[in-house]
UniProtKB/TrEMBL annotation:
DUF220 domain mapped to chain residues: 62-134
Gene source species: Camelina sativa (False flax)
InterPro entries listed in its UniProt record: DUF220
Domain of life: Eukaryota
UniProt-recorded name of the protein: Uncharacterized protein LOC104741060
Lineage: Eukaryota, Viridiplantae, Streptophyta, Embryophyta, Tracheophyta
């Protein structure tokens, strides 16, 4: 993402409950319904419950699947662990993402050393270097028994991958809009 890690973290954790996904056939791909902070950050992270709706399309039909998710957010480490609570069609859906700074101009401005921190990068680039964000996503998904049998499982896997890819592209486009590009 072309945003600094803190700004990208705000877009991903969505504290103001704004959606960043595109509208497909009259529905948002990922709609944020509500977000509730259950416990504030106590050093172990902030516990958040959210209700979302994932849009789906199949031939001429479309709709939204409501999901309840729980998050443990660690703003100081820029990491989030999440899992889905209601398991209508899924046995397991959980994952985590971690945001890392990406020093865009480090090879050009910091020729002899690779910066290990933001302070080092600002020092060697004379505060002219740009900082982007690298998002690492680790996700586990297992559909329920009926949806885990071939050929249905192939279709479910393809839809899941396509949806996640589209959400990542939407996140990149939202980052470009924030930057004003």
């Amino acid at each position: 993402l072309g945003l600094p890690p803190e700004a990208a973290y705000d877009v991903l954790t969505n504290p103001d409950n704004q959606s960043y996904s595109r509208i497909i056939k009259g529905r948002q791909l990922l709609e944020n319904i509500s977000r509730e902070v259950v416990s504030p950050d106590t050093g172990k992270g902030q516990f958040v419950r959210a209700k979302k709706a994932v849009g789906w399309n199949f031939l001429y039909w479309s709709g939204a699947i409501p999901i309840s998710t729980s998050f443990i957010e660690h703003p100081q480490f820029l990491t989030v662990h999440y899992w889905v609570k209601n398991k209508m069609f899924i046995d397991m859906f959980e994952g985590q993402y971690k945001l890392e700074p990406l020093y865009v101009d480090s090879e050009r401005l910091c020729k002899h050393k690779k910066p290990k921190s933001r302070e080092e990068y600002e020092e060697c680039s004379c505060r002219q270097g740009r900082i982007a964000t690298k998002v690492k996503l680790d996700q586990m998904f297992k559909p329920s028994f009926l949806f885990n049998l071939p050929p249905i499982s192939w279709y479910v896997r393809r839809i899941t991958i396509k949806t996640m890819t589209t959400l990542i592209e939407d996140l990149q486009m939202n980052g470009a809009m924030i930057r004003g590009v």
